[in-house]
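Record 1 of the preview.
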Amino acid sequence: MKERHTILSKDEIEEVLIERHTLPIHRKLRNAGAAIAGLGGLGSHVAVMLARTGIGSLHLIDFDRVEPSNLNRQIYRMKHLGRYKTEALKEEISEINPYISVRTDKVKVTENNIDRLFRDDKIICEAFDRAENKAMLVNYLLEHRPDTFIVSGSGMAGYGSSNSIHTEKRMKNLYLCGDGTSDIASGISLTAPRVTLCAAHQANMILRLILGEKDV
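->
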């Protein structure tokens, strides 16, 4: 016998979220959105966490495909191998809450397309792997888009203390999550627990910004 899957209606999902979050908080989340630049170990988990809270819209940006090396710390599964991360993650989000508006851009972020890509985004999660790409996006946004909030990740490699991962407000609109030091360039591997811890800090900071709480 073929297994049947239950699909909740939009009203049923909203009823559950209101019960969990209260109506005022749910309304703020439902009317909010965030962009996620980079859909690897950080970005894929941030997107799923925000989807589970009931955020209204997500803008997912990545040019890469799912590879076997991604499976140790990212949300993807073997069935996603070879698929673009934007498509695979959008599919996973639809399994959690099909009523979230998900926009995707299958493109590499450069200084030449930042303005176009993030034109409508007020909260941007930086979730790149490489330090130079992180710096490029953050510095450009700080200089050219002072109206945006940036939640960046730095330092989550290895399996050191969970307590060293934290969120810090670096500038008026810039929040940095991680331990600030551990780096795969030093030969330390990336593991699911610490990467996910950092992603949770990013997702939580985005929720705080949505709810108007700008201090860490």
